[in-house]
Amino acid sequence: MTAELVRGQNHPVSHSRVEIRVSAGTPVLALASLADERGRFSGPEALTHPGAPSLPGVRSPEELAERHAFPVDLDAVPAAVHTVGVVLVLPPGGPVRFGAVPASYVAVADPEGTELAGYTLTGLDGETAVVALELYRRQGAWKVRAVGQGYAEGLGALLADGGLPAPEAAALAAAALRTASRTGESDPTLATMPTLVRDLGSPRAPDEAPAPAPAPEPPDPLHASGSPYAGTPDPLPASGSPYAGTPGPAAGGDASPPTLGPGTLSYVHPRRRPSSTEPPEPAPRATAPAEPGTPPRPVAGDADGWSMEERLYNQVWGMFEDLARSVAAYRSAVEFADSRMDRELDTALSDPRHRLGGSGNAARDTARARRDDLVAQARAVLDRDLVQLVAECEVVEPALPAAYARWDNPVWHGHRIPGENPLALRLGDLHLPERPDLRIPMLARVPLERGLWIDNGRTGSEAAMAMDTDRLRRAAMDMAVAYAARLLAVHPGDRFSVHVIDAAGAGAASLAPLVRAGVLAAPPAAGAAGVTQTLAALTRRVDLVQMALRAGAPEDLPPDVDTAEQLLIVHDFPHGFDDRAVTRLRYLADEGPAVGVHLLMVADRDEASAYGPLLDPLWRSLMRLSPVPDDHLADPWVRHAWTFEPDLPPQSSQVLEQALRLIAEARRTGRP
């Protein structure tokens, strides 16, 4: 039975040799692209076209035609290739956009000719080159994903977005189309493919707006939207929430995602830039399935990378993307089923003949039954994907290093201060309502490229509004201390200096573990004088380092300048701040991260309302987090609203104090 995919949905491919079938409403050029684990093309040799139709494992058609059928041998695809894309291109002189022709249908068939999965490309408009679907590696096995996203600027834009230099992309696109224009149409009997939209072939009705395209991925690891609550650690955007947010690797794109409305935040995948020219270590692959037809058993580290740490980081991002897309496919199918039921009910009830007798009730029952059947099919597919993701989480979570692990992970019991910086830092967990117990680690790349803001106000979420003010503020400060302790514990002993501004002393109880361990650079600054002195010292450091870097002489810094990374924790802003102190804080938030000064604020924005829009740039520059569950994050692929929950040490546990003792010992002895 053919799996009818909707945009974003995936399906296992159980055969190594498959056939790609294309049925379009107009002659098109069908190409194949080969991309690495980051979705990037290595060069012209990564694309088939009529002038060069063959690549390892795939041979695409050499002519324009309405129907195509071409083979793919997945076993012959090079190990460095992680995605085989099927690209459809409108030739010059034909229709000017895919929205003006009947919807194309693309399928993957097994060697016996049985279709495994099919996808109808609805919802297109001005696109002239479209990635119809892609075959991709996941946990040592292959899957097919319905993509249906394209480029109005044509094949050249598609290639440039895949990493080819613009001149090279334009030349390759021109050569492919020029060669294709000299070929005739192929025999229309190559394949007989259905062109009708299937029940689940589209997430939306033809008269509805198309689904949003996946968000482009900026190169920076933490990217804020234009929201006052913008800020995310590396993951998501959710409409109407102060959280939005990235990671398996996704295709690159524009440097900033579109603004999604008030309170959105971009969680974008920060790509790893390997510093070594040596090939990465081979990743372990998922073990063979216990029974034929079952998915392979997952293993920890089943992703590419230059170390186990990076492989686990990329695997977490892969799980994040898989969950986002699986739920998107399910929600799209439900939306389509609801929309179709509404149209059927409107049609039935608008007929006067159905207003008498029981025919109207029968029409309603039939429409609802069809809707329930479609939803049940979509839920079965989602449940299949969720079972696999839960199994993967169960093997990945225990294997995470301390920087990525929850505080209750046994890895902390044997933890030692490392000799090298970590790749990322865990800030909490993310989950969706379809499976709340399936938690994806929220990882932020370090060093932090933007400050963190822990919102201790009661207007951020329903959970905050239901919580006592004093308890909420204590929870926010405890969260800040836990972040500081984790940051120190997963870096070499001399790599970070921590400063605290607690003007009124209200955070003394939460700060006590840091003070007792002696890991602060100085006692917490209190009063207006302490605020001024601390901000002046850090501002001076930023100025001196910037001047030294501009002069190309970083070694000529004055001897009293601490060259370690600096973390400033500010509690209860703006208490104790005058206008000059506020200006300095804004300066540190803007200029500090680039020269190793990072800001962690615990504040209620409403308490700073007297400054009006003056502080809007400050709030936008910080990544907003919440000490209670809050759905203010969104992924970069389909823009789900994800619920964020911070990761805090278990109550009555000594794990945080133990980590702080290790830090203090490492600083005293000068060794990990």
Characterization of the model:
The chain is of the alpha+beta class and 672 residues long. It has three domains: 3-190, Lipoxygenase-1; 308-403; 444-627 and 650-669, 3-Layer(aba) Sandwich (Rossmann fold). It has eleven helices and 20 strands. It has helices at residues 155-161, 166-181, 308-349, 359-396, 462-465, 469-489, 508-517, 527-550, 579-591, 616-621, 655-669; strands at 3-5, 10-13, 17-35, 54-55, 58-59, 65-73, 83-89, 104-109, 115-121, 129-138, 141-151, 424-431, 440-445, 451-455, 496-502, 565-573, 597-603, 622-625, 630-634, 641-646. The strands form four sheets. Strands 1, 2, 3, 6, 7, 8, 9, 10 and 11 form a nine-stranded mixed β-sheet that branches. Strand 12 and strand 13 form a beta hairpin. Helix 1 (155-161) runs antiparallel to helix 2, helix 6 runs parallel beside helix 7 (508-517) and helix 6 packs across helix 11. The longest helix has 42 residues, at 308-349. It starts with a strand and ends with a helix. The model is unreliable at 182-279 (pLDDT under 50).
Number of structural domains: 3
Q: What's the β-strand tally? A: 20
Q: Give the low-pLDDT segments.
A: 182-279
- Please summarize the sheet with the most strands: 9 strands, mixed
Question: How many helices?
Answer: 11
Helix proportion of residues, in percent?
Answer: 25-40%
**CATH structural class of the largest domain:** Alpha Beta
Average pLDDT level: 79
Shape: globular
Helix/sheet category: alpha+beta
Please give the oligomerization state of what you see. single chain
CATH architecture of the largest domain: 3-Layer(aba) Sandwich
Radius of gyration: 27 Å
The name of the CATH topology of the largest domain is Rossmann fold
Strand content: 15-25%
Intertermini distance: 58 Å
